[in-house]
Amino acid sequence: MWPQAVLDLLEKAGDRTVFEHGDRHVSGTQMSSLIRRVAAGLRRLGVRPGDGLVPVLGVDPEAFAAVIASFAVGARVVACRPDQVPDVLASTDASLLDPDRLAGLLDFPDDGVPLHASGRPAGPARVIYTSGSTGDPKGCVQTYAAMSAAWAAHPDRWPPAIRTLAAGLGRYLVFGSLTSQVMLEYGILSLAAGGTLVSALPPGYPAAITRHRATAGVITVGRLHQLVHDQQQNPADLGSLRALMVSGSPLDPGRLRTALDVLGPVIFHGYGQTETGMIAMLTPAEMLADPAALTTVGRPPPAVQLSLREGELYVRTPAQASAYWNDPAESAGVFTGGWVRTRDLAEFDGEGRLRLVGRARDVIIVHAELVYAGPVERALAAHPDVAEAYVVGAPDDETGEAVHAFVVAAPGTTPDPDALRALVSGSGRPRTVTVIGRVPLTPAGKPDKAALLTNPAPTVDVGAGLGPG
């Protein structure tokens, strides 16, 4: 039962460094001891299987030990952003685990007796709150059985793309929160691959890569664009980098190609959701071997099942969530018959790779006609003067809603808003096209499309093409 495989990995690591934090090098044996001490403290405080804990901790060995110990005693670990904590504490019947409380837990001695995971298979192991980029944040519930079915801690379960990725995880940068789904999953994968978790002090690319000689890290699409731009203007030595996992939102094929050219064959383009975990992954070798792969997110591993229903993607993954916390109505619309409704529109290319074509809910209703943002964004991004394109809808007295586009200029260019509008016909043609310096980001690092209409952060060149579609 989860996290027994992680406890076993750490015991087997022995004197090998599993976590590096500044000048501290924590071995597998030392980490196991930390986990036992925290687990003893939690049990002494009366934490039992199913009890909720909200860890709000730093990114250091003690924080990692606290997260794993919380799982080891069978608690319900609630993962959310710091700004979500007050609402989450009020709605999830959970208690806060902060640095002060953790310091008290570390006062308990280590009895040296190996831990055995106490989670109940059907009990909730983790509640992960979504970013809210497509609506209100929702708490995705994973059971202990689901987390036990995940492949990260088990090399014999690794799909081919994950096996390729694992080879680059020698020194994996951790930052933000160790309860983050991707941060923890790739961290466990690194440990299983014989690697070391390295605190990014302070976080931020490219400095963290060069400072810590990192071989791997996770990056959102918005921050990847910024890293590529920085490398084009003032290149840093990223020679240690072997794997950069892009998460959070789809990546435009042109920008993906540029990232490969600028950063080298280190980009792993993954697709997944908080509700499902990883669905598919595209490796650098696949992208370099066939440029057509750049328009896809790769092939799903054998353990993942996909179903297209009227163009909308439904999936089954080994470690998927089973419901939203205390939200039966929303759960019924997403978790259905053992499948997860992604609300993403997709198709397969001729090679069996999955291609995303838009979000089922990312629509703008113009003259009662549905306009999907994805195809309009791709049409605009295909223009050589456009580095990034984002489309949002806003109320309009004449059409109900109108399409508004925001574009980031490619280096050295000045996009012509009217020329860009002409790339799209019919109801999808943008009412306005605005050139911005960079897209605003949510706290999760994703493009904040909702903020574009209120805080577009334009450059000195702002254009708007007006007129009927």
From TrEMBL:
Top-level lineage group: Bacteria
Annotated ranges, domain AMP-dependent synthetase/ligase: 11-87, 117-325
Location of the AMP-binding enzyme C-terminal domain: 376-446
Gene3D superfamilies hit by this protein: 3.30.300.30, N-terminal domain of ligase-like
Protein name according to UniProt: AMP-dependent synthetase
Record organism: Paractinoplanes durhamensis
High-level lineage: Bacteria, Bacillati, Actinomycetota, Actinomycetes, Micromonosporales
